[in-house]
DNA sequence: CTGAAAGCGCTAACAG
DNA sequence: CTGTTAGCGCTTTCAG
């Protein structure tokens, strides 16, 4: 295994110059740099990460804390962040925290300590203690989908977006609008469901509709949960003519229940989702599109800002957009 | 920032003993270990990753090379691998290679060099040069979903599983069976599509059915591709009564096309997918289930075997299973 | 089982 | 712009 000394010798420079040349520092003549680079190529030399890291104090790695790596939303955010970070020469280390135990272990042991130069946290609303633990790391932190004092974040306006969804329904004449939501309390203490519910309530209020607790069905952000939640609404003496599902996955489940019950979509019941999941088009689901890859990219950029001592934006709110497809339509003529 | 010296001093041992105690080596008395651990806890000390890595030559990290982080299959494999590796104290570093350029850059520059203790490669059929580059790393490598000489792999039997899918259709009396497949050549040179196609051909042969090129529609493993591919089959003078989609995502697209064309499922056309995607249940799709999380877990275990100098299995083939749902049924009475 | 001391292979400060 | 040199903070012999 060649060392930087071998490279330096072959290029007839000192190890310091070799190091500078290989790292692309400006204080090296083009000629010297070329010689060093050629020597490195010939010897098939790369700077060993650990030695460089020990000497410089940097790890060139970013940790990403994520509840569910396998879910579309998180995978897409990760992909966006990874691309930007890789471009900047940073590695992405994944820390999955699928349940409360894993999360507690993460914040307790803080395996990112002395291990990464920055941390990205996806969707987890931090407790005061968790936020404090991250701040104590003394490395840049960026949140996606949640906020905390003094920590930059990237997110969407869930309340406004949900209201936009429900307004689409009221605009179509619907008055009895169901909500497919999250359990209470939500897993991980997620705050997104609450915000989306508030958007639902706001849009109802705007339309002068009295909210009806019976029209809210909880379950979770999965298709299976959406399926059973929709079944409950359908069993109501007077079922809704439209439902707002807090996630597209739930909406998919709801569509299944409706189809199986031979309920016309959107003739009898309209369904709107949230996310613009990659399969929403295939299911012809009207939904609120949120920019997911972009959230990962922007979060990575905020991290880079901080790593380069540029002041980062404190709170980036990306836009959402109604995507009209076939699952929503005018309310059935008033009964 | 406390160092191991501070811990050693406080525990009244040498730094060597402190190091041994903190790493859980057996050659330390329980008493000494307890003293050291208490001192470390009091000082809030953790072994700095880079110093440890430089001194020991190990990085305690595993690299995972993956084409599409955001797709369900890959995200699920990553989650499975990450859980096992984390348990073993290893970090997972993600290397996304969504396109040929990124892939070339990865194998050219080999950013994993001197950076990880082992590498996991997902679904990429390695060229001879790529396999050689990985071997030259001199670290354990495990493949998921592809194979290469001398590199352990975890996978399913795509041919058998696809044949199983198509046999399900022939068993239901179908004789005109369409195939929704991948483009030729497939992206990344994926070999999975070819194997699944061979399974399709085998099952047809078993049933004495002459394959018909017109019944094969290519497009890619996405819902959008499945949608248009299905439309092409439907436009045939004599369309199939059943289709085998190489992935559930394609099957979802096919279902959309069929529904929109008001073709009865399965009354007029049966659809079977492949994967048992998390949304397959919501779409009532009959499919071949493959154990995805388990593939990630097993791959991680094979890595651990190698890292601990245990001979790993060379080729682990996990089982698949037919999951009957509502999208397949008996062939329409012979015309 | 424990300690002393020699690296691991760079990077950064300083000097020129 | 380039060279010298002193660490970075552990882990690992080698002794005892």
Can you characterise this structure?
The structure is a homodimer of 335-residue chains. With 335 residues, chain A is α/β, with parallel strands linked by helices. Chain A has three domains: 4-56, Orthogonal Bundle (434 Repressor (Amino-terminal Domain)); 61-156 and 292-319, Response regulator (Rossmann fold, 3-Layer(aba) Sandwich); 158-291 and 322-334, Response regulator (Rossmann fold), CATH 3.40.50.2300. The first copy, chain A, contains twelve helices and twelve strands. In chain A, the strands form two sheets. A six-stranded parallel sheet of chain A has the order 2-1-3-4-5-11, sandwiched between helices. In chain A, strand 1, helix 5 and strand 2 form a beta-alpha-beta unit. The radius of gyration of chain A is 25 Å and the shape is elongated. Chain A starts with a helix and ends in a 12-residue tail after the last strand. The model of chain A has no long low-confidence stretch (mean pLDDT 95). At the A-B interface, helix 4, helix 5, strand 2, helix 10 and helix 11 of A face helix 4, helix 5, strand 2, helix 10 and helix 11 of B. The first copy, chain A, binds a DNA duplex (16 and 16 nucleotides) through residues 3-5, 13-17, 19-20, 23, 27-29, 32, 47-48, 50-57.
């Amino acid at each position: 295994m060649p060392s930087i000394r071998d490279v330096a010798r072959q290029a007839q420079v000192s190890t310091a110059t070799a190091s500078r040349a290989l790292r692309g520092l400006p204080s090296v003549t083009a000629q010297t740099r070329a010689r060093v680079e050629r020597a490195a190529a010939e010897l098939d030399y790369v700077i060993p990460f650990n030695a460089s890291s020990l000497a410089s104090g940097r790890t060139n790695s970013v940790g990403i804390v994520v509840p569910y790596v396998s879910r579309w939303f998180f995978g897409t955010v990760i992909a966006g962040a990874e691309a930007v970070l890789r471009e900047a020469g940073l590695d992405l280390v994944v820390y999955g925290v699928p349940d409360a135990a894993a999360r507690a272990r993460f914040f307790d042991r803080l395996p990112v300590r002395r291990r990464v130069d920055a941390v990205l946290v996806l969707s987890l609303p931090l407790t005061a203690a968790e936020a404090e633990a991250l701040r104590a790391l003394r490395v840049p932190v960026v949140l996606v989908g949640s906020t905390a004092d003094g920590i930059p974040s990237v997110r969407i306006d869930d309340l406004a977006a949900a209201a936009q969804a429900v307004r689409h329904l009221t605009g179509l004449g619907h008055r009895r609008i169901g909500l497919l939501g999250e359990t209470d309390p939500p897993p991980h203490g997620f705050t997104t469901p609450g915000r989306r519910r508030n958007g639902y309530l706001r849009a109802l209020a705007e339309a002068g509709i009295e909210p009806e607790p019976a029209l809210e069905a909880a379950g979770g952000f999965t298709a299976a949960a959406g399926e059973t939640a929709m079944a409950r609404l359908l069993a109501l003496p007077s079922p809704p003519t439209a439902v707002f599902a807090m996630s597209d996955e739930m909406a998919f489940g709801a569509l299944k229940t409706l189809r199986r019950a031979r309920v016309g979509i959107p003739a009898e019941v309209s369904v709107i989702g949230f996310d613009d999941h990659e399969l929403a088009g295939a299911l012809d689901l009207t939904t609120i599109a949120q920019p997911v890859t972009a959230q990962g990219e922007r979060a990575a950029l905020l991290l880079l800002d901080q790593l380069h001592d540029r002041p980062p934006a404190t709170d980036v709110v990306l836009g959402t957009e109604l995507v009209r497809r076939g699952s929503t339509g005018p309310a059935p003529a008033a009964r």
